């Protein structure tokens, strides 16, 4: 049975839907565990976007938590704090407050960007990472033409206040190939999530997308000017990672996926016949991708523990 409630992540209260866990409260004598999968949605949705994937993960033995991202739905929507560092710190604290030492973190679209920021900044909190339809250092503005529009001042807030319903439904219909999951009830939830605080979620576009565009421009200049030496960047991603992408995605085209996977040194899983919302359009295949990575991580951890125990016995 789904449970709902608010859980703090730093100064932000996240509205969380949880499955496979009896309570948000840690029972007496219980210790934080590593059985949590944290699912982070993208735009224009809320945590209910994982309703088709979450039960499959619970059936495999995991606890699942699906927060509304900050600025969406029923989570807090402050005016500030949408930079990657703050978002990562909040998710790391949210994982801890969901009574997990580490979590398998899964993110779609903007949720993927937040998941990546968390894995880079707090690798000790992320057991494994799956990002879906989420460009990393790659943007195709011929497809993502909405990004410049959403960076305009004032107009986007007014548009989504006045016509949030048609705009949200239109964005989903444009980006999806398989329409069945997008029932009237689902659409109403997504419209409500987006209309709650447009000025807040627009901060993702006005902070993260601008940073990505600047990074893209700098890298292009360096490629053309060989005498410019790239400075040392952030540490390499130290978390086992899978990249999942719909092969017919019109919003973040599939040609971006291979470069994202290379940059992250990740496994690439392309899903034919689906668009941008891979977790809803192909939930069984998506859940399998998450579980395949998690099982690989479990085997690697068991082997690591076995080697450690052998070393300790030999040393003793």
Describe the structure.
- With 316 residues, the chain is α/β, with parallel strands linked by helices.
- It has one domain (3-227, 236-315): Rossmann fold (3-Layer(aba) Sandwich), CATH 3.40.50.
- The protein is 45% helix and 16% strand.
- The protein has 10 helices and 8 strands.
- An 8-stranded mixed beta sheet has the order 1-2-4-3-5-6-7-8, with helices on both faces.
- Strand 1 and strand 2 form a beta hairpin.
- The longest helix is centred in the last third of the chain and has 33 residues, at 283-315.
- The N and C termini lie far apart (48 Å).
- The model is unreliable at 225-235 (pLDDT under 50).
Write the layout of secondary structure elements.
Blueprint: E1 3-9, E2 12-19, E3 36-40, H1 54-59, E4 63-67, H2 84-97, E5 103-108, H3 110-121, E6 126-132, H4 146-150, H5 155-175, H6 184-195, H7 198-224, E7 241-246, H8 257-264, E8 267-271, H9 278-281, H10 283-315
Parallel strand pairs: 3-4, 3-5, 5-6, 6-7, 7-8
Antiparallel strand pairs: 1-2, 2-4
Helix pairs in contact: 2-3, 5-6
Features:
45% helix; Rossmann fold; alpha/beta; eight-stranded mixed beta sheet; 10 helices; 8 strands
């Amino acid at each position: 049975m789904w449970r709902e409630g608010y859980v703090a992540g730093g100064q932000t209260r996240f509205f969380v839907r949880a499955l496979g866990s009896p309570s948000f409260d840690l029972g007496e004598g219980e210790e934080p565990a590593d059985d949590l999968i944290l699912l982070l949605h993208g735009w224009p949705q809320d945590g209910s976007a994982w309703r088709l994937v979450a039960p499959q993960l619970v059936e495999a033995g995991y606890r699942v938590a699906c927060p509304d991202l900050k600025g969406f739905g029923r989570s807090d929507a402050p005016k500030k704090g949408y930079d990657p560092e703050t978002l990562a710190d909040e998710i790391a604290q949210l994982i801890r407050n969901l009574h997990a030492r580490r979590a398998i973190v899964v993110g779609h679209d903007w949720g993927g960007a937040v998941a990546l920021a968390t894995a880079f900044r707090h690798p000790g909190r992320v057991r494994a990472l799956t990002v879906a339809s989420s460009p990393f250092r790659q943007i195709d503005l011929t497809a993502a033409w909405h990004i410049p529009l959403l960076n305009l001042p004032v107009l986007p807030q007014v548009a989504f206040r006045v016509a949030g319903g048609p705009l949200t439904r239109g964005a989903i219909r444009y980006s999806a190939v398989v329409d069945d999951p997008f029932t009237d009830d689902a659409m109403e939830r997504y419209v409500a999530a987006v209309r709650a605080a447009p000025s807040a979620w627009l901060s993702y576009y006005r902070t993260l997308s601008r940073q990505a565009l600047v990074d893209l421009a700098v890298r292009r200049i360096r490629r053309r000017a060989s005498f410019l030496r790239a400075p040392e960047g952030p540490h390499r991603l130290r978390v086992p990672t899978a990249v999942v992408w719909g092969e017919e995605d019109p919003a973040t085209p599939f040609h971006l996926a291979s470069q994202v996977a290379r940059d992250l040194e990740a496994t690439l899983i392309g899903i034919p016949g689906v668009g941008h919302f891979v977790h809803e359009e192909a939930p069984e295949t998506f859940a399998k991708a998450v579980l395949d990575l998690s099982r690989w991580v479990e085997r690697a951890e068991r082997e690591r523990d076995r080697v450690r125990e052998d070393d300790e016995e030999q040393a003793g």
